[in-house]
Structure formats: C-alpha cells, structure tokens
Amino acid sequence: SMLEDVVNPSPPYEQLNFLTDNGLKCWQSGMCGAGFTEFHASGNAVSPFTYYYPTDPEMQFMLDLHLATQAGSERWFHPISTGAWRPTTKVGVSTATGVSPNQGVLAVYGPAFGDTANGRVMYVAGHDLTSGGGGVAIQNKVSAIRTYFNFMLLAGKSRQLAITATMPPDSFDLTATYPVSVTVTTGTPPYTYEWTSQNGGSFESPNDSSTVYHPPVTTADTFDIVKIKVTDLCGRKNFASVRIRSQGYPALPVSLISFTAEPEGNEVILNWTTVSETNNNYFALERSAESINFERVAILDGAGNSSSLKNYSWTDRSPLSGVSYYRLIQTDFDGNSAVFGPISVRAGETTLALSLNSVFPNPHSGNFSVTYSSAERCNTLFEILAPEGKLLYSINLESSRGTNFIELKTEEYVADGIYFIRLSQKKAKPVTGIMCVQSR
Questions:
Q1: Which residues pair with 254 in a beta bridge?
Q2: Which of 63, 67, 71, 150 has the highest CB neighbour number within 10 Å of its CB?
Q3: Is the Cβ–Cβ distance between 76 and 102 less than 8 Å?
Q4: Is the Cβ–Cβ distance between 433 and 359 less than 8 Å?
C-alpha cells in the first residue's frame, strides 16, 4: 500500500501506482504517513476467497494459498474508494471485500502502469509465506511461494533476448568446416557474441555474429558442444548450443607443431613444422575462397621416417583476391590422411588487426574497464566521444601484443548518457564501441 501511493509532488505524475489507477488504502490507520486518508481493517482479509485465471502460468499451483498470507502487516490489498485496479491488472485471488474493479485481493499481477512494454509487477499478501501450521497450511505455503516463482520466471522470459542460431549438423565430418551464425530480434544493441567449443573445436571469428567452425582434430571417436552466447547493451544474455558427434581420424604418424600463412607483398608464404614422422608419404596444400570448396595447389614430399625437427615451406605466388583459406593434408604410405587447418590470410594486407573486446560493466556509474586486442606492441590512442562527435577524453596507451586491459573513471568529466569509445593505432583501422553511463 505504501509503494502504490508514493508520489513525487514535483512533478506529481511521477508515482508508483503500478497496478492501481489511484493508489491503495493504508494497511492500518496512521501507519503510512500524513498523505494517507484511507485505510482498511487491519488483520486478516475477509473470506470467502475466490481464485481466478487457473490457466495463467502465475496461477499454476495446487490447492489454495490464502492461509500462508496471514502473517505480517500487509495481509491483503484494497484500492482507495476513488480508485480501482487497472484494466490490465489481473486479480489472482480476491477477498470478500468490495467488488470488481475495487475488490480486496491477496494476489494480483500485471504490466506496470498498464503498459505491456513496461516490466511486470506482482503483489502477494503476507510478509512471511512460510508461516502457519501443518496440514493444509503447508500446502498453502507451497502454493504462495510457487505463484511468486512462476511470476519471476515469466518476468525474466518476457525480457530475454530472442536469438536464432544456425549450428553444425548433429554428425560432423572432421575434414570439413561449417558456417555458423546467430540473429537477435529483441534486446538493446549493440550485441556482443561469444562462440565456444567444449572439446577443442575452433572459430575463425569467435566474436562475430557469423563465423566458420572447425571441428576438433582427434584420432578417437569424439563429440563437441558448440555454443553461442549473446549479450546486449543492458547485460541481458541468452545462448544456444548443439551437441555433435563424429568418428575420429585413424591414428597418423606425423606430429605437426605449427602451420602458418603470412602475406608478403602480393604473395602468401605457408610454413609448417613437424617434430616426428613415421611412414609419411607427402603433404598436399589446398586453397579455398570461402573455406568450404578447396582446390589442390601444391604437393610436397614427406620425410618418410624422421625423429627430428622438419621445416616445410611453399609460396603461393598467385593467391586469391581478398581472403584465402589454406589447409594441409598429410598422407602416409598406407593411404591414411589427416587434415590440418584451414587457416586464413589476406594477400597484400598492410593493416594490423585491432579489436575492442569488452567494456565492463556497461552501463556503469563511473568506474569501468576496457579489454582490447592488438596485433603488435605499439602505441594505442583511447578516446571517449559524445554522440555528436565531440572529444571528451583521450589517453595514449602502450599496448602489448595480444590482450590488453585498462581501468578508467569517468565521473569527473562524463555525465549520464550514451557515448562512443574509439581505439586507434598507426597501422590499424580504428575500432569503436558504445559505453553507457548511468549513475542512478
């Protein structure tokens, strides 16, 4: 009753009458402040109690709940004489006091202020739902608690991110790769994406909405769980996952410790190294424009049998335009083969990669951290800009190669609102992100 009658006198339209149009009577005379002129009888509500909406998820419980509401001060709720429950408010359990839409209730729920775009609100009478004796009272306790938890699940579900994911098939080929993607239709952008593999698979771009999945390389029958987690600007999360299985590669006698592709001008140099080879016939290099359909571009003899470090190299003097994908196939004298890769490279690439990984927490009240990745050790310019582009803050950071972390404070120079973060390096393309400041 006190919550529903909270009103900001300036401006008066700011109030918390979520489920009524004009507030509730105080639970007892003189207990809710000078502004309260109406109150209802203290103590327990008047029976009989009537139950409604049995098919609503909120009301999915067995038997009754009213015996569990007979503890504490607020044991029932009743609108003031000049008010009523909102038309969008559902009375789950009513008392014998008053008639609709002004009846007394024990349980009531609906959208805040009658707007389905707002959050959901529920009142259940009683300050201690575990009070009461045994027998039927115990069943009442379970019902009263269950209706609240039912409501909690529904409230969360109504605000969850709606995602649709395209995943690898249930059974997969260890020599193949699979495009995966996710789309988000609710929530507040921008979204962050995190693709993960439980059993050694990998992704070409694990933080993009669309990427390519590479199954784990193993000699045993195996499975993998591929998972995508999506987080929106407000921190809401949802995920999708799939369990996939496959027969493993036959055991092969080559131990490969590296396989790389590096651009050099308009050419691509491929290098790989083995630490041991047994019965190794040859290596074949294959190339693709989309990491699905590969063509063979080179064959190099293997060492046969070796227990020492062996380095191999081949130069693609006519790489594909844009990104090229390469994979290495090793074949022994018995005809067994193993596939390594694919790996990707862009011929003629002159810029170095720079990526903004996370801003946490977001929104924040003044203190936050930024995680970003740099392709080399160099100077990085960090900037905060207003929505119209005005520079509010900048700092030069000495970045190391790989993942970098910085903690910052904004309360001294940034008011509440939405801002842009920009990271820049001399040889890399600038990257931007969004930061939300919310002190209250």
A1: 277
A2: 67
A3: no
A4: yes
Separation in Å, CA 11 to CA 3, 7, 8, 14, 15: 17, 9, 6, 6, 9
Residue 123, classed as helix, strand or coil, is: strand
Distance CA 41, CA 62 (A): 29
CA separation for the pair 283, 295 (Å, rounded): 14
The pLDDT assigned to 440 comes to 47
How far lies 408's CA from each of 361, 384, 396, in Å?
Answer: 11, 11, 13
Strand runs labelled E in 265-377: 267-288, 295-306, 310-316, 323-332, 337-346, 354-360, 367-374
Cross-strand partners of 271: 260, 313
CB 369 within 8 A of CB 408: yes
Which residue carries 């393309």 as its tokens? 429
Angle, CA of 327, 328 and 330, to the nearest 5°: 150
According to the 3-state scheme, what is the secondary structure of 11-63? CCCCECCCCECCCECECCCCCCCCCCCCECCCCCCCCCCEECCCCCHHHCCCC
Q: Mean per-residue pLDDT for 376-383?
A: 86
CA–CA gap between residue 268 and residue 92 (Å, rounded): 70
Q: 């103590």: which residue's tokens?
A: 43
Q: Where are the alpha helices (DSSP H) in 177-301?
A: none
Euclidean distance between CA atoms 122 and 114, whole angstroms: 13
Residues 93, 66 contacting (CB under 8 angstroms)? yes
Phi/psi class of residue 358: alpha, beta or left (left: φ > 0; alpha: ψ in -120 to 50)? beta
Express each pLDDT in 399-428 by its tens digit.
Answer: 888 778 888 876 655 677 767 788 888 777
Nearest to 66 by CA among 52, 53, 51: 51
CB 77 within 8 A of CB 117: no
342: its two tokens: 């694919």
Residue type for 41, please? A
Range with lowest mean pLDDT among 88-92, 207-211, 407-411: 407-411
* Structure tokens, 430: 């600038």
Classify 206 as helix, strand or coil. Answer: coil
Peptide bond into 215 cis (omega under 30): no
pTM of the model: 0.48
- 300 with 265: CB under 8 angstroms? no
